Amino acid sequence: MTHDQAAARIIFLTAELERHNRLYYVAAHPEITDREFDQLMRELADLEKTWPDLASENSPTRRVGGQPLTGFQQITHPERMLSLDNTYSEAEVADFYQRVSKGLAARQTASAPPVDDLLAAIGPAIEMIVEPKIDGVAVAVRYENHALKYAATRGDGTTGDDITVNVRTIRGLPLRLPSTAPANLEVRGEVYMPNAAFEALNAQRAEAGDPVFANPRNSTAGTLKLLDSRLVARRPLAIIVHGFGNTDGLQATRQEELFALLDHCGLPRTPWWKKVRSLTELLAAIRELDSFRRTLPYETDGAVVKLNSLADQRFLGTTSKAPRWAMAFKYAPEQAETRVTSIEIQVGRTGVLTPVANLTPVLLSGTTVSRATLHNEEELQRKDVRVGDLVVVEKAGEIIPAVVEVRKDQRTGSEASFVFPTLCPACQTPVVRDPVQVAVRCPNFRCPEQVKRRLQHFSSRGAMDIAGLGEAIVEQLVSANLAMDAADLYSLRPESLLALDRSGRKSVENLLAAIQKSTQQPLWRMVFGLGILHVGSTSARALATHFGTLDALAAASIEDLLRVDDVGEVVARSVHDYFRHPENIQLIDRLRAAGLNFSSGTATTTAVSTTLTGQTFVITGTLSQPREYFEELIRSHGGKISGSVSKKTSHLLCGTDAGSKLDKALGLGVSVLKEDDFHALLAKS
Ligand code: IVH
To answer: How much is the pLDDT for 119?
Structure first.
């Protein structure tokens, strides 16, 4: 393939991939299978590797994220990003409608005297557009010469964070606009995390012992603030564009025409919107949206109402904060009032202390709520929740009940402030503050509460799945000092179990059999069950498959760990630290002695020789066998694999179509082996 041919093919593949992204993420009508999509993507990635000068910054291959940033640059918005005035009642909507009518009547008199007095009195029919208010994070996205130039948060309205690399991961957002779109254009929209993705992310985080997000907006904001865009790429964010910022040659006279223009540009917009011509129609549209908004795949917290005529919008202008031609109507969230009966602290498996309010049971969106999370110390103090307070609880993002407001006006003076403990309530160890995760932790590894939760996690259905080893038994085992860690379970004796409350001979036999049976569970279940911070079941599977044995996993360097799909810096560091902790090393040895399954059976790496011990390999280009085959060979002869070429690299194993790694190796004078050379090297063993 010549350079020109490659350039043409890259242009074709880029356009195709973006078209298929749009079909999949925006139109929800894919034309090709995921596999076919992946093939096109791979072809593009390979071409870019071979012809690095042809790789563009806006290539679909870059949607997977790049090197972490150290901080966000600032971007000054060419036009200020305003906010909207909120209204909470139909009466306020009527006020808004009247205000706009009056304002526009003034315009009539200003430009030309009214034709007749009656028309002046009632005013002309005013058209407005009603659309959902998406509860996400506001962004401005700028295209220059039809290509995505930057994306920024609102910030203070004047300057925001440059979050381009993160926004680029949003598959539904085009990286290029059609040539018929305005060349330089800025759109404003709302980035959100679809509800299903939010729930999956929270389930994963809970599993991995990470704090969960309170609602999809928080998870979106948290995701957009990540400095490592590779992590962002794994969280499926989406965007809905609702308007234009600074744009050259925008040809439109009415707000409603903007929807067609967004479609023309391939920019995702709200599928539902309504044009209304009177206050009655306006209120009806707001109610209609409320009747189905909970069925939408994203959170909406209101309706946005905008004047249809763009000339009238300009005429009314803005205040320093918000346009006069638009407003947000906020739906009342599902809330209920109830009383806080007590506040308790839960100690999680990783030692995080979470304050929880016990409540007088109250019905809220169809379920009885008797507990609500207070999230963390900072939140608790900010809201100043006291025992005895009348509080408003809400299904935050319709999901986890949370205390949103304290009715301080209802206080009698007998309410008791809650003092966040400085000692762990379970073991009295002084707690430590973890500023990164806004968490307070009990640092005592042997804290009975952590011990219990770790054991519960180990035996849970998602991990080692030990039937009969539920919360109550774990509680007793820990209290009676019979089990302090997972390995202790495998040396439990029937006599000691029989001495426990309500333990019959039969149930003891069953429990011991279930424990014994669990030694045969696949490796990933044990890796997950160990409860390594940040390692959920998905990462546990990926790690077990990649390394094949627990020993290989335990020996892996951070670099090795980073080579595993779906493992980022945070997980890699956590896994690495875990296996270097003497307490954990001992635990692993005892689990091995107990006969647990230490290999995944799929990619078992058994040392064949030590020919390659001390040598580090980097693999690049297309080889005759899948990469895993060579990785396996290298490891089984004692060698190590690394993802990037450096002075420490012993050999670059190089196939056809090698790219920058080959250049780097040649530059550094690293030995370059073809497949034949590699086999010859091994044959020396
Ligand atoms: S139009 C001048 N339309 O709500 C601002 N905003 O509370 C015009 N929002 O800043 C904004 N959905 O971030 C508009 N359909 C929608 C929206 C929407 C959500 C956000 C937006 C705005 C905030 C105001």
So the answer is: 52
